[in-house]
Amino acid sequence: MTQEVSGSQNIGPLRMPPNQLIVYDISGREVTSIVGPLTEGSDLVLTCEVRGGKPLPTVSWFVNEKLVDGRIEMNDKVMINRIEFSGVRRTDLNSTFKCQASNTNLVLPTQKTVRLELILRPLAVKLRWKPTALIAGEEYVISCESVGSRPKAELTWWMDDKLYEGGKIEDSGNETVSVSSIKFFPTPEDDGHVLKCKGVNPELMDFVLNDTLQFNVIYPPIVDLKLGNNLNAVQIKEGYDVYFECKIKSNPREQKITWLKNQPRKKVELRLLGDENNVQGKGPQARVKDHEPKKKGERKEKGERTIERRNPRKTPD
């Protein structure tokens, strides 16, 4: 006698993982790895769409591996989770955003991670060294540094708002730091002019930072001595009063002025006719009249007048 044995086995509901997960940015473009680059202060919106899966999967967002709340929707068997952030900051640079979809513990969840890229304006542009004084004719190297710009800031040099060529870019070793240097030999004509370094992110041309240095150029006196404008050397006769105009330009202005009549040095009594309002550069224009005592018709000495001017040279910082 044969006995039949029948048996049955319960099979749970069929589970199928999601078959598609896509991340979109605020404009509806698919994001595969990099979000942006966005400008600092912009709003960030990411949408994760998951298709397929049985049962419908749970869709979650993680920011820097921390679970965050999003807005969940379902549309024609498509699960959607959207996250929004207003005014991204520079501290959000390189943050990661991971969308994860899961409906079973039997297989690993479906997920995608993207990274945030930002365009950052420079935080500061500064001259590394600002000498208080420069000596005419000596060589100087001035460096300018921009910090915080991404991509790196472009640095340009300007002299009194005119582009100054010759800046040399240096490798800073930092992706947000730019360095440029110029080499120059100041002249007396540079005294008082303003050197400017401008830094601008090439992606944010309307935001410019700069630093300036006003030149204080130390140079010895430059002297121009001539007969007074109203005098004609050909018409001067014995016994006439004459005066000389001596234009002096120097820095520093404090100086010693010595008049010489012929050589060797001979003391001459002179009267200063100029005033503090008659100034060229940093030195006065002196109109000097010879006032040696004489009687009418008295013969005066022929000779040449020489002026010496000295200024103390200060060592710049």
UniProtKB/TrEMBL annotation:
Q: Which UniProt keywords apply?
A: Disulfide bond
Region entry Disordered, spans: 271-317
Pfam families tied to this protein? C2-set_2, Ig_3
Which InterPro entries does this chain map to?
Answer: CD80_C2-set, Ig-like_dom, Ig-like_dom_sf, Ig-like_fold
Enumerate the PROSITE patterns for this protein. Answer: IG_LIKE (PS50835)
**Family annotation (Gene3D superfamilies):** Immunoglobulins
Q: Where is the Ig-like domain?
A: 18-115, 122-197, 220-262
Question: Which regions are flagged for Basic and acidic residues bias?
Answer: 287-317
What protein does this entry describe?
A: Ig-like domain-containing protein
